[in-house]
Amino acid sequence: MTRYRVSQLSCLLIAYAIAAVPGCGADTERSGATGDDVDQGGVVTSAVTGCTLAQPAGAWINEAFPDQAKMFHADFDATPSTAAIDAVVGLSGGSAADFAQLAAIVRFNPAGTLDVRNGSAYQSTSWPYRAGESLHFRIDIDVRTHSYSVWIGTGPVRTPLAKALQFRSEQAAVASLSSVASKVDSTAGALQVCNVAVVADATTGDGCVVAVVGDSFVNLPTPDATVLDTVEFSVQPDRLDLDAVIGLSAGPADRFSDLAVAVRLAPSGMTDVRDGDGYRADLSHPYGLFPEEVRLIADLTTHTYSVVTGASGLSGELAHQYNFRTEQRAVTHLDHVAVAVDGTQGRLQVCLRQSTPSVGVAYSREGTYTVAPLANGEALISDGATTTRVDAGGHVLATLPFGGELAVDPLGNIFVARIAGTVLFVDKYAPDGAPVWTRGANIGDGARIAAMAADATGPRVGVVTPQARSVSFVDSVSFPGVLTTAGEAIALDGDQFFVATQRGDTLQIARYAATGATVWSREFAGQPKVTQMAADPAHNLVFGGNFGGGVDFGGGPLVTHSNPEGSVGGFVVKLSNTGAHVFSQALHTSEVEGIATNGSRIVVSSIYRTQLHWARLDSFDAGGRAAAYYGSDGFDPGESHGDGRRVWMSPSGRLWWSRSTIWPGAVQAWPYLVTFTE
Q1: Which of 147, 420, 454, 664 is the most exposed place for a label (fewest CB within 10 A)?
Q2: The architecture CATH gives domain 43-199
Q3: Distance between CA atoms of 145 and 509, rounded to whole angstroms?
Q4: What is the band of 42 on the pLDDT scale with cuts at 50, 70, 90?
Q5: Sign, Cα dihedral of 45, 50, 54, 58
Q6: pLDDT at position 14, please?
Q7: Is there a cis peptide before residue 110, judged by omega within 30 degrees of 0?
Q8: How confident is the model at residue 678 (pLDDT cuts 50, 70, 90)?
Q9: CA-angle at 78, arms to 57 and 136, nearest 5°
């Protein structure tokens, strides 16, 4: 028998279980609300590097390991020589010489299947075994609760053979276990047991961890996040008056103040979230004894985070942009999930589903925003009530007490457009936010702002009124003069504008002067729906939407696709500054919701609808060749459930994408503004 104190080697042995075991480096302590410091400790033993063989009707074979009195797991391979053997492998307190001395037992029964012991009797699993076939077992054991679970297989493909079994009745009060014992009771057949390894840690066979009151923090290493960290996990307490926390930290946590963010199952039976120097919640949410899913999105650029919980197909936001814990307001990265149970009793199982740092994201904001790109990656972003100036990393430079659709002229003056009833208001502010003037124009009922721009002569606004199927061009030069015409979409281009109008089975795309005079017009047969338009610096037009039948914009007929939920007819088209066809493409999406271009690059934001919605952001060069695909930006781990909405682009190519993320399933959407690095 070889015994090892936890070392670098033993850390490698248990790495597949994604568990951090105290002792891998410096000793760890826990300093909680009780003031008690408890050393978790850990032992890994490899009892025999080779194999043992229990003979038919032969003696007991015991492989000793250091006493374990808390949680641990035992791994081993077992191979029967026949398919009708009667043999057991189990764990005992000291060397076993009798079946009654085994606490946790796996049995190869004479019928050719596996049994497990549950209290006073064996329980059939119906799992077959075969002569000469090696089976890998993992037994998760908690001596304090006299319970265990049995898994078969290795790594992520383990199958639960049985869960939450009770120790054999005769061992219901055993205080520790220290031996793996095997015995063949039948007169024929032998049982070989190999590669016995015992690990003292808090992991389970399905990759979860269990934190128990009085023990140290359980730490799970995760991929390092420096901008956004999206973490999903499930929690399952064993009582409704638990006092437990699950949080994120930079490095392993050994005290509560190490946690930058934390979700707490409080003794009151409610779930709350850390906000700076205290706990609270935006939603009154009791926890139950069933597994409950939690999503946590932490933003290291603002040191804020949001928490969503999902139970029984429902979801709710427990925390909306709460502050990191006060002691962690300067943390620069997060790379661990940490779990601890405080108080006097109870345990909590946490299963880490996904932990995904953002990829290529500069910063984000939860909520719905409009954006005015500025130089050097800076931007003005507005939530409709306030406007914030942020630098390229998302750090706040100034906050202004107004909000709406935004535009900035070459001198830095800020223009804000908003609709109140049937009146469009445009406000001008100096670069420092001081008010200059406010003007209003009547635009009719049900209108929405579709575009806004500003140059040295002032701002211009494009308005769409869906009910009237009309668009309005509001020019600052003749303000409050309003030019209104039939149309479904509008784009601004200096003192001119583009309009898309469906006239029966013909789509008209036209360019107009500020006077309303037609500069050029193109018509296309079919009934495509134009939803978004944008002009580039060279006065070319890019537009998109969806179509249900064949349509040819000049590059050949576009063909729709379909899925069980309907047609997939998203498209994008570019016309030159004279209206000539440059390119047209069908997209593998359902509808275009946003377009932006700086001339050399075009980005298209779309929704792909199946039973779920999928957000997608496609990128093309000036000639229509695919340049990049942002199907998953790391903001949603491994997926992009949600809707792609508006998008903005700076002259240098920086992107701001308004999108939503749906979680869990197809229940509720949470809006975000995601900013990509250039």
Answers
A1: 420
A2: Sandwich (2.60)
A3: 74
A4: very low
A5: negative
A6: 24
A7: no
A8: confident
A9: 160
Q: Which CATH class is domain 208-357?
A: mainly beta
User: Where are the domains positioned within the chain?
Assistant: 43-199, 208-357, 361-403+528-676
Q: Do the Cβ atoms of 440 and 468 come closer than 8 Å?
A: no
Its sign, for the CA torsion 99, 105, 108, 110, is: positive
Cα separation, 547 vs 549, in Å, equals 6
Nearest to 643 by CA among 655, 627, 656, 659: 659
CB neighbour list of residue 671: distance below 8 Å, 6 or more residues apart? 366, 367, 368, 645, 658, 659, 660
Which burial class, exposed, middle or buried, applies to 559 when counting CB atoms under 10 A from its CB (0-12, 13-18, 19+)? Answer: exposed
Half-sphere exposure of 153 (CA within 13 A, CB side): 10
The reply to whether the predicted model has a pTM over 0.90 is no
Q: Is the peptide bond before 664 cis (omega within 30 degrees of 0)?
A: yes
630 compared with 676, residue with greater pLDDT: 676
Residues 512, 429, 473, CA angle at the centre, nearest 5°? Answer: 15
Q: 515: burial class by Cβ within 10 Å (0-12, 13-18, 19+)? A: exposed
Position 207 scores a pLDDT of: 87
Q: How far apart are CA 254 and CA 41, in angstroms?
A: 13
H or E stretch at 10: helix 8-13
Per mean pLDDT, which range of 39-43, 238-242, 667-671 is the poorest?
Answer: 39-43
Question: What is the rounded (10 degree) CA torsion for 223, 229, 235, 240?
Answer: 140
Does residue 13 have a pLDDT over 70? Answer: no
- Checking 635-639 for CB contacts under 8 A at 24+ apart, the result is 635/228, 635/230, 635/358, 635/361, 635/364, 635/659, 635/661, 635/672, 635/674, 636/230, 636/661, 637/230, 637/232, 637/354, 637/355, 637/356, 638/354, 638/356, 639/614
Kind of pairing between the strands at 506-512 and 448-455: unpaired
Q: How far apart are CA 504 and CA 526, in angstroms?
A: 8
Q: How far apart are CA 513 and CA 169, in angstroms?
A: 90
Is pLDDT of 566 > 90?
A: no
CA contacts within 13 A on the Cβ side of 578: 1
pLDDT value at 31 more than 90: no
For 616-675, write each residue's pLDDT tens digit. 899 999 999 988 756 444 444 334 678 889 999 999 999 999 998 877 765 677 899 999
Confirm whether 43-199 and 208-357 share one CATH topology: yes
Q: In the 8-state DSSP scheme, what is residue 98?
A: S
Q: How far apart are CA 676 and CA 361, in angstroms?
A: 4
Per the model's pLDDT, the better-predicted residue between 414 and 631 turns out to be 414
The pLDDT value given to residue 351: 94
Q: Any idea which of 111-115, 490-494, 548-552, 653-657 has the lowest mean pLDDT?
A: 548-552
Mean pLDDT of the chain, nearest integer: 88
| Straight-line distance from the first to the last Cα atom of the chain, in angstroms, rounded to the nearest whole number | 58
- What is the distance between the alpha carbons of residues 671 and 678, in angstroms, rounded to a whole number? 22
Helices (H) and strands (E) in the chain, counts: 1, 57
Query: Look-up: residue for tokens 């792909």?
Result: 608
